[in-house]
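protien #1 (seq + structre)
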Amino acid sequence: MAKYGLDISEHNEGTLSSYHAWDKIKESKFKDFIILRRGYGVTPSQDSCYLQWYKNAKRIGIDDISSYWFSYALNADEAKIEAQNYIKITEQDGLALNALIMDLEDNGKFRANGITLTSKFINQQIEAFIGELKKAGLNSALYTCQWICKDLLDWDLIKELGCGIWNAAYSQEDAIRGWMFQYTDNEYIDGIGPFDANIMY
């Protein structure tokens, strides 16, 4: 049976600053799970709302909570460092999570450094980042867009890593049918939003 949930970050702070907004989520179909941005980059930078969002999700009865890390790594060595920082911070939190997720998508830092998304680049980043999560014994998944899934992913590597796939494609059918599908970034719940909305198979 399919489940529905949201993925959120500090960018949703204005929308989710009140208990009233969270209670609306509790009353909606999007109460099955939630995914929170933990941080981003090599430095690392932490999401300022992560801990509060975790507490709020627990308060309304959401126990299926995962987190993600937006990768800005320019090579495999940096991807490995990002994953190590992500693991360290997660361990310091001491909070129960379903999965740790690598968010790998095109971004301005890649373009500014002349990086084109090729199959070789994408898969070396995944192997380095997810490989660290697996070495730590953690449930892991990859978030990326549908065209990367279809055109660039090494599916033998994904199978070897035991990595769940969280596919994103708006106004399209899910051609991957992995762990989860992000089908919109424009979901409203009783007038509040917009949210990224997801279906978990």
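ok now protien #2
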Amino acid sequence: MEELRAVTQAIDGGYVLAGRSYSEVSGDRTQPSQGGSDYWLVKVPAPSTSTMVATRTATQEEGSVVKTRSFLLQSYPNPFPEKVTVRFTLPETQATTIRVLDSQGREVATLFQGEAQANLTYQVEWQAGKQQTGMYLLQLQTPNGQNTQKLLLSK
């Protein structure tokens, strides 16, 4: 079990995260526990000035015609103090769900659920004022797959 206890912005614009772990070697952990719980400090560099979180392009050839399908998922600001804006565009009309999950993978909020029209830009907001400071996951789910990105709530 991992637990993020504090997030502080550093002078250089990056973030220092403090937490503890009760887990053994797995995932990103490469060393066994040193006792009941291990305490961790992690320095995260300053975010880039770009607001783009993810873009994916799939190219499919049909004869001599090349079709490109891509979707765009943006969130800003990230890190955010209380409210984050999420924008997305899909290449084809399809059922879409945008969720926010906590660091344990539990659903915190559903921001969008329905049929998203092809090539239209959708914008939704997550008011996270009552949530605890820490890392959250932004998940875009369609019948063709899913994309999950990190969000950092820093109050």
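Residues 49-69 have pLDDT under 50 and may be disordered.
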